[in-house]
Amino acid sequence: MSKPLKQIHLAAHFPGVNNTTVWSDPRAGSHIEFSSFAHFARTAERARFDFLFLAEGLRLREQDGKIYDLDVVGRPDTFTVLAALAAVTEHLGLTGTINSTFNEPYEVARQFASLDHLSGGRAAWNVVTSWDAFTGENFRRGGFLPQEERYSRAKEFLATANELFDSWHGDEIVADPATGTFLRDAKAGAFVHHGRHFDIHGRFNVPRSPQGRPVVFQAGDSDEGREFAASSADAIFSRYSTLEAGRSFYADVKRRLAAYGRRPDQLLILPAATFVLGDTDEEAEEAAREVRRAQVSGATAIKHLEFVWNRDLSAYDPDGPLPDIDPLPGENTIARGRAQVRMYRDPLTTAREWRELAAAHDWSIRDLVINTGNRQSFVGSPATVAREIDAFVQADASDGFILVPHITPGGLDAFADTVVPLLQERGVYRTEYEGTTLRDHLGLAHPDAGAAAERAAS
């Protein structure tokens, strides 16, 4: 008997200003005006996507002590944007990245519970940690935590937030016109948490929301991150966009669930994916080459090389050869606030490999950055892209994709109009929303209020 077809989950990431987005394209719009967010969200909802996703930067990035004006993080506050989008959408999930290193559980739990109420049960939280002291300078606590401490705090942060969500058990509210009393149970919202990172007690002032708790996403790729996702998350982002690497990551994370009493279908794996469409595969390939060159200007190429060399390379010609000097070892002081720096943990080895590649292909600095950077995940005609997405999911390399267009805000339009109908024809993608909450869209169970009450009581 043949295996039943898996249903594909699709979501959309609003990329903001970065080197993914081609801002030189005349179709590019604002990354801060609400009309851009509204257009993007409405397109995603028209295509029956599960959710829209916003990342968040907590400090302006710097390069050699100056604001990195090729890639400025200047987006409005995540919660403000998502709350506004709740008013112009009806079904689309609203996912925000909120840091567990520099925030506090009560405040974050209150914000997400409020968003879940305002949206009718469509809120989701991407739980992340912060890895550098540079970002920490913006916050009272300052500094940064070693990796093991970051995940320890994140785990307790999420557990504490869940205690707050669960402090309302679902049946406490009762109206008594005679006395004006609205609480049947004086313990409603009461919480006590004594832990290593948080020691708080009081009363949570937001009643239990439609989903009980927001959907929880996690994005770590380290062993600690994978364990955190297996123990606590509803979905995990993945950076693996090739079939072999995707299947390996998928199998590894799914096998970890059993240790926490969870089934494989209780955690979704959703890689980020870029795409370029054309009327034919050849047309799309040519367009993809043009997009990559637009994403990596000469100035961008030099800045990217500085991530590895940890030196000022502004005197080098981006259309010339790679530097013959070696990277400076130790803490990166050239590029600050950029997660990409962590990708190159052995700069000397990376530099040697890049020189070998450049020599073998006669690449300039810009050619190298273009060809070693992230290529588009899916390139081709709508039929080709639909077929490849379906094959990826059916092969258990993912449960779906978070699409990252290179044009904002209209970059999803062609995908919604051409690829989605083909996936629907294949019978692997919804034609209508079948539920009202994000948990319904993702096929995730709602937390049981009774079990939550028992946990809170204990």
Count structural domains.
Answer: 2
Poorly predicted sequence stretches spanning 5 or more consecutive residues: 451-458
Helix content estimate:
25-40%
- What is the radius of gyration computed over CA atoms, rounded to a whole number of angstroms? 23 Å
Find the CATH topology of the largest domain: TIM Barrel
Q: Tell me which CATH architecture of the largest domain applies here.
A: Alpha-Beta Barrel
> In terms of structural class, how would the helical and strand content be classed?
alpha/beta
- For the biggest β-sheet, the strand order reads 1-2-5-6-11-12-13-17
CATH class category of the largest domain: Alpha Beta
**Overall strand count:** 17
Largest sheet data: 8 strands, parallel, barrel
Average pLDDT reading: 87
Share in β-strands: 15-25%
The gross shape turns out to be: globular
CATH superfamily of the largest domain: Luciferase-like domain
Keywords, please?
15% strand, 3-stranded antiparallel β-sheet, 458 residues, monooxygenase activity, 8-stranded parallel β-barrel, 38% helix, oxidoreductase, TIM Barrel, FMN, single chain, alpha/beta, NtaA/DmoA family FMN-dependent monooxygenase, EC 1.14.-.-, disordered C terminus, globular
Topology:
Layout lengths: L8 E5 L20 H13 L4 E4 L7 E2 L2 E2 L10 H9 L6 E7 L5 H15 L3 E6 L4 H4 L10 H19 L7 E4 L4 E3 L6 E5 L4 E5 L11 E4 L4 H10 L2 E4 L4 H14 L11 E6 L1 E3 L3 H15 L2 H12 L25 E2 L10 H15 L3 H8 L5 E3 L1 H13 L5 E4 L9 H13 L12 H5 L6 H9 L1
Parallel strand pairs: 1-2, 1-17, 2-5, 5-6, 6-11, 11-12, 12-13, 13-17, 14-16
Antiparallel strand pairs: 3-4, 3-15, 7-8, 9-10
